[in-house]
Specification:
The chain is mostly beta strands. Helices cover 14% and strands 44% of the residues. The chain has a single domain, classed as Multidrug-efflux Transporter 1 Regulator Bmrr, Chain A, CATH 3.20.80.
């Protein structure tokens, strides 16, 4: 599904090398994030990975803070992030490789000539994973 989203706080990660399928074997609550640059010339949609990163599941203390309406403190070493701001967001099932990612991402990022996108994958429970593609800027109203 396509959404417009205002991310009020950044989602931070620690740099780690990962592949697109790595989330499948992680423990529930884990996240993997990839930052890609993309460009589109009306014929070819290209993506280029800039970094990959990891976020461990929330601790019990972090969960208590969130449930109370607070924001947990920044984690030490978590220097990469999806910055706060307005995004177009596509939520779907994870892909297995960059060829498949390129095809899926074009539905949301292909309306721009070039830019940055963040691919966030998280393990919801032992059997389910979700992939979100964040592209800076809001969707046009007719797609919202």
């Amino acid at each position: 599904m396509l959404f417009s989203l205002n991310l009020s706080n950044p989602i931070s990660y620690i740099r780690q090398d990962h592949g697109l399928g790595d989330i499948l074997v992680m423990i529930p609550g884990s996240e993997v994030c990839f930052r890609y640059d993309f460009d589109y010339d009306d014929v070819i949609f290209r993506i280029s990975r800039r970094w990959s990163a990891f976020r461990a599941p929330y601790s019990d203390e972090e969960k208590r803070i969130i449930e109370a309406g607070g924001i947990p403190p920044e984690r030490c070493g978590y220097g990469l992030s999806i910055p706060a701001g307005d995004y177009s967001l596509l939520q779907t099932v994870p892909v297995e490789d960059e060829k498949e990612l390129r095809s899926v991402a074009m539905t949301i990022a292909g309306r721009y000539r070039c830019g940055t996108m963040y691919v966030r994958m998280f393990k919801e429970n032992p059997l389910e994973c979700v992939m979100q593609i964040f592209v800076p800027g809001r969707l046009p109203q007719d797609l919202d």
